[in-house]
Amino acid sequence: MKPFILLLKIQLLGLFGINKTLYADPSKAKRTLALAALVVAAVVLFASAYSAGVAQGLVQIGLAEAVPLVAVLVGAIAGAVAAFLKTNGVLFGFKDYDLVMSLPVPTSSVVLSRIASLYAMSLLFGVLVMVPAFAVYASAAGVSAVGVACMALSIVLAPLLPLAAAVVLAVLIAAVSSRFKHANVAVIVLTLAATLAAVFGSFALSGQSDDLAALSALGAQLTGQLAAIFPPAAWATAGIVQGDLVQFAAFAAVNIAAAAAVFALVVLLFVPVNSLLMSSRPRGTFSFDGKDAARSKSSTPFRALMVKELRLLAATPIYFMNACIGYVLVLVAAVAVAVGSATGMLSLDLLPPAYAPFVGALLPWALAFFCAISSTTAASVSLEGSARWLMLTAPVPPATVLGAKVAVNLAIAVPCLAVSAVLMAASLPLDALSVAALFAMPLAACMLAACLGLALDARSPKYDWTSVYEPVKRGVPVFAVIMIGMVFCALGMGVTTLLGVGASLVLALLAAAVSVAAYRGAVKRGLRA
User: What pTM was estimated for this model as a whole?
Assistant: First the structure.
């Protein structure tokens, strides 16, 4: 038990970067932890308010008894998704595998400590989603002592079954990826499909009807379908709402049994799968025939570095999703606007006359928002990791190395932005100035995110990560880019509302100038070991 406790402590401290913050640079530890506390407080406040708002909406349309069902289901799924994204950096494919396995502790303790850290993350998401919803339900419908106990237990038990499914899926992906060259591309495609399905599903639900009776009927139908799709959530709801301990016991048994079975499976496959991942190598197809020789001679260092960056992006699903999902959403939104306009489902004539002019003025900033929080460069230098010597010793200037990273960001973003702007300009009755803003604002936001993210990451790269999740999700440059992008878009909306579209174009030019200055500063400073 003692090895498990020590390993779990290390996992939890590393999971949130606390240990590294405290000991790597003590002089900055207090400021970093204070900033992290503010971020956590903001996330907790937002998530709690959103969850409570959704629960209150269900109560208002007469579906109070659906609140526990939705809370259990959403809390469990949200935690499972969070755990799934971390599994391939915590259970499989972590850099210090050899060091961990050389410790005098049983494999079961290693596996249990790592699964427990994933469960802690799932439980955290579950608490954020479920507690506010349960509070709204309790105040609206009243809950017995048995119901309160079932609520508390459901928060603890709900993540287990989805977490088990997420771990099994991650095991399969890890096993396949050790032999299948394009497994990560398949993961990216499936994750994108799931994300877009969730987005369109939420829009479809919100836009069904404004009639309260029709909305209530629709909500009852959907909750019935959810209960049929995931019966354990219905069993938990029966315990909370009706005090049915038999069904709640079934809910608890299924979750605990799934967790125990997956633990046994991972203990069995932990060493073989990780050994395959550690021993597998990319299978190159290069040969010294005329075709490949001509291709290698025609390639330039800049192009070769761009290809390297693109391969890293495609080989790391969490990196791609975190850095590029904004561009995908912009493109999808533009297609939806075009389809809605062509079919007559979307028209500015449906808006009050006083609001219609604001669409053309503020729409560019809506697109810019998704671009401003998307940056492949904010973690690109840190992701070099232990292979940074290749970047540092390459016989090319820093401008070539860093320029290739920015070029990859722009090569992905600019086509998406151009297609999206053309579709929206053709679908909506916008004036010439608004059309120009539709191109200029998102492009300026993209340049700002790319160049500023590169400058921040190149200034203080973190090469000592053990999982790509650390620089991609918890890196200071990534967080800074998101916050600065949000402030930039909020400022742009304010300037546009008060001074007009022309002033926002000036702001876009200023952002482009800042971007160029940040890039030049990064190149002048050079690469850091």
Answer: 0.67
